[in-house]
Amino acid sequence: MKWKEEDICLESLPTTPATDSTVIALSEVEKSILEQQIRVPVSKPGFFGIYRYASRWDLVFLLLSSVASIIGGAALPLFTVLFGNLTSTFQDIAAGRITYDHFHHELNKYVVYFIYLAAAEFITIYIATVGFIYTGDHVVQRIRVEYLRAILRQNIAFFDSLGAGEITTRITADTNLIQDGISEKVGLALTGLSTFVTAFIIAYIKYWKLALICSATLIALLLIMGGGSIIMMVHSKRALECQGRSGSFAEDILDSVRTVVAFDAQNVLAAKYEEQLKESEAPARKSQITFAIMVGAMLGVMYLNYGMGFWMGSRFLVDAREHVKVGDVLTILMSIMLGSYNLGNVAPNVQALSNAVAAASKLYSTIDRASPLDASSESGKILGHVKGNIVLQNVRHVYPSRPEVVVTNDLSVYIPAGKTTAFVGPSGSGKSTVIGLLERFYNPVAGHISIDGHDLYTLNLRWVRQQISLVSQEPRLFATTIYENIRFGLIGSEYENAPEASITKRIHDAAKMANAHDFIMALPKKYETNIGGFSLSGGQKQRIAIARAVVSDPKILLLDEATSALDAKSEEIVQAALDNASKGRTTIAIAHRLSTIKEAHNIVVLVHGHIVEQGSHFELMGREGVYYDMVQAQQIKQKEAAKRHESMTFFLDEDYIGGGYPMDDEDDFSDDASDIVLKSGARQRRRTRMSMFIPPLPSKHKENLSLWALFKFLASFNRPEWPIMILGLCASTLAGGIQPSQAVLFAKAVNTLSLPPFEYHKLRHDANFWCLMFLMMGLVTLVIYATQGTLFAYSSEKLIFRARSQAFRVMLNKEISFFDKEENTTGALTSTLGAETKQLAGISGVTLGTLLIVTVNLSASLVVALVMGWKLALVCISAVPVLLMCGFLRVWMLDRFQRRAKAAYQQSASSACEAASAIRTVASLTMEKQVVSSYEKQVQAQLKEDILPIFKSSALYASSQALPFMCMALGFWYGGTLLGHGEYTLFQFYVCFSEVIFGAQAAGTIFSNAPDMGKAKHAAAEFKKLFSSRSTNKYAESKAIHVSSMQGSVEFRDVSFRYPTRLEQPVLRHVNLTVKPGQNIALVGSSGSGKSTIISLLERFYEPVLGEVYVDGRDIATLEKKSYRSHLALVSQEPALFQGTIRENILLGCTHKEAVSEDTLVQACRDANIYDFIMSLPQGFNTLVGSKGGMLSGGQKQRIAIARALIRNPRILLLDEATSALDSESEKVVQAALDAAAKGRTTIAVAHRLSTIQRADMIYFLEQGEVVEWGTHKELLRRRGRYYEMVNLQNLA
């Protein structure tokens, strides 16, 4: 074949040396090229560094909000001054030192100040909350957009080294952490600090000596909180470590649930899981008890502070030299308490700030990374005209994620303009690498690639990609209309901004060229059909992808196995479209199916990254080399396919779908709605004749369970602890009485300090008594709260332990189909056992105790107040709902702020993640700007939508902070009036006021200690669902027949099967096969042909949809599962070993573990060829295998799995690709063990490597769920059919 020399100035291309070595040492230069492609710098922004993307207005709002937070915090302690001054005024009127008019004037003045204070608190907190949440949202929105922009400009190697889901984590979880740390939490931290500083300043200004003495409270509180937190952290850490171990153990078991069920090991493993759970019970309980003691100690310190303050205050009060008033004493006491508590509350908010800095560091590392292949860069030449001559010269490529393997070495090839060049060869030979290098997804470590004589690396990257169109094996379409999907192909081309009519014509022409126009016009909405909400077949998607590729009339077209995922009929249509599209442009095709590239002008055969031969189809066939062998192997396949095509029509009889348009090439099986889904639309279920046998899907209706029903369900886990819980409830009742008692003591103390000078002797005497009462109350509080907390900690840990262990047992006894459902992945089930169980404590005794404390507290307070002074009590009671609501709102709003931030960006985050997952498509279409701009619009729209809710919720939060002052103003005004008229004494006033106002406030703050009942209710509902769902069986186990012995004959009679989660996809179609006792049979075929499904049906993991499976002439559906499975043993591709010793793992295979002698164990190990290895270990059989057997090699694990199977002495041995994951050395050893194990029992083996099953008595070849040929190895080779072709292909590779 001759090329014109004038096409291109071509240096003489050396031929590629053919060597087998693909592992070659790299030079320092080559290593640096690889390193550059995957290196990520570490960014360390400080707290202010997070605000890198804040606009000028954001900074103005932040400044305003910070000032408002500080003023709001400073305003809070001012109420203690007003409270003290009012008390002094009350003392004066009670002692008759001032007139009623003067008193009335003073009272009104201070009450108005209270109202001013409430207004100031509302305005400042409102401004601060709105400002911080809005700027937090705005800044995080900018970070999200910048992060996506950075992600989309990264080179492909960067994505190869990222863990699955990492981008999703960064764009959702990490941005949420930043939002949490720079929104209302900053305001709360500033407010708390400001309150602390102001409160202490007020106290020291009032009277420094008493303030200094009372400051001991701060030290005590900090010591209690610090010490308690450290102890809690130590115990929590231990508990979490133990829970982590039990969680990973549970995950290992659930991950290998088929092995567990096959060996009937549910009870043994559940018992081991419970042992591990027990380890975490004690530290978790200690952590909870510490928390209870901490709460009790903090409340106790508050009462001790009152006692000490009143005692020292009374001494200063009677000393004429000190000039101290009773109001000053009260102001100082309340200020110190307020300041100390607010300092304690700053810590959790500061924690959120540091989490935000840590999360920002990860995001900014990506944002700051300079991509070595940046499509957004403007650097590089842009050529005026492209012909399409391509030269690869001495190209050597290594994937940065696999630096030890050289994929192409010294590859040189000339690809002429306007012609089709095909690359063929076995998997891993470097075919797709050529396309990756031309698209500049990677930089090769050596060599040159040029287009029309210009070095590819001197050209502008975005421009290069716009000259090339790529159609890959998996077409990635976006969840928008077909029209828009094709239009994406015009990005960057001269036609991008053409008039709409001209663009529409181009799109229609491209669709016609891709053979897609007719089927698009048959759709109800034609080109406006949204792919996100409509189900297209693989062939249809592929043709839309081809239309997208050719719409811009590219000079270079790359086809990467564009038809390999299609069935024969679709392939024919798509191939015609591709042949059409290739005319007149440089086309590079990669193909497994050689029939698709017969017409190529030049075919390059690659093996191990080297060219072994090249030429046209006829030239290569004449040479009878590697290409000839490949063609021969595939021609047999085509003849067979032609024969079988007619017999398959029963399954492909899909002429029309509901809407009445023909689905001319409906792809048999896979049917995803779209690759990039934002809103999954309703899919139309396709009907085949077989669908009459499909049971209807159960309708999903959500069962709404009442709180009482869930509570009763959870109480059943705590039945043995009822006596303890009743004691806990009694302690809660006593705890509820503490606040009302304290209010009486408080009133008595204030009344005592208000005595006139001539009664100072009585004042000192009474003050001593009441202060001792405060001391006693402090100690009683500590004891009661500690007792209540300990009792509930014990019962709630028991609840969690039982819930986990029983839920685990329920999971292990579920049908296997339960684990196939999307919502029941191993991760989801492990999370249910871990996090969700922890939340159950929210509807348990602890919550009951909390509610009881609130109820007793409020009821007793109101009763005492009504008895002491019903008029004032009734007026104050009118404020109770408001105060309770404030306490609840404060907690609820803060929680809601956090949840809103997470939920709001879920939708836009999913579109960003989908774009990142389709990065190759986005990069090859140079769609980066469009994706970022679309994402930016989404988050901006979200921000606009959020503004009103932010204003509303901030108003509620600010009200919860301001309204208590209004309620105090009301109490003081009406109470003061009654006092002025002489209707009430000072003692009566303070009892009523303290009982109702402070009692209701205390009740309101209890909400913050109660666990989140919303989460708890959700977790309890999930558990109830798990426990109540029953498995459906054709035969109830009670009626099933016990299997005491087995011969081992197996027969499949006309068995058809579909997985319950994929009912539209047939897996087995009318399978018939017979196995005699003691026979060794093998099942072979390509992936997805149904081989492993046959093993699953034999193990009774599933029931057939049609037909029956017989063992020893009995339908296995009528047999008792446990006794039936005891005669079977399974060895899978991935040997499932569990944490524990080698002995424990092997004994899992026994049906009667206690009756197994040491000799039996040793014999099983000898038979499995593993005994010598075990004895060479220091601990022998007691050697720990680690998580999933991680301490052992693949071959060792597999042989232990074989020993586990043999110790059962099974009549039927099932081998599911037992050696496919091993290297050749291990495979030999394991295969020898398997051959020995198969003697004297029925063996059914699934294998990909045909060398392992040559000696089988019978080989069944499956394709698309049907048995297409069977016979011995020699018979099948003589037949030169499917099996023969597969043997040849394996020899070739």
Automatic annotation (TrEMBL):
Pfam families reported for this sequence: ABC_membrane, ABC_tran
Molecular function per GO: ABC-type oligopeptide transporter activity; ATP binding; ATP hydrolysis activity
Domain ABC transporter per the UniProt entry, residue ranges: 390-633, 1050-1289
SMART domains to which the protein is assigned, alphabetical: AAA
Boundaries of every ABC transmembrane type-1 domain copy: 63-355, 726-1015
One of the protein's GO biological processes: oligopeptide export from mitochondrion
Transmembrane intervals: 59-83, 110-134, 186-204, 210-234, 289-306, 722-747, 767-794, 840-866, 872-892
GO CC terms in record: mitochondrial inner membrane; plasma membrane
InterPro entries registered for this protein in UniProt: AAA+_ATPase, ABC1_TM_dom, ABC1_TM_sf, ABC_transporter-like_ATP-bd, ABC_transporter-like_CS, P-loop_NTPase, Type_1_exporter
UniProt keyword terms in alphabetical order: ATP-binding, Hydrolase, Membrane, Nucleotide-binding, Transmembrane, Transmembrane helix, Transport
Keyword NADP: no
Location within or outside the cell: Cell membrane
SUPFAM superfamilies the UniProt entry points to: ABC transporter transmembrane region, P-loop containing nucleoside triphosphate hydrolases
Membrane topology value: Multi-pass membrane protein
Similarity-based family: Belongs to the ABC transporter superfamily. ABCB family. Multidrug resistance exporter (TC 3.A.1.201) subfamily.
Protein name stated in the entry: P-loop containing nucleoside triphosphate hydrolase protein
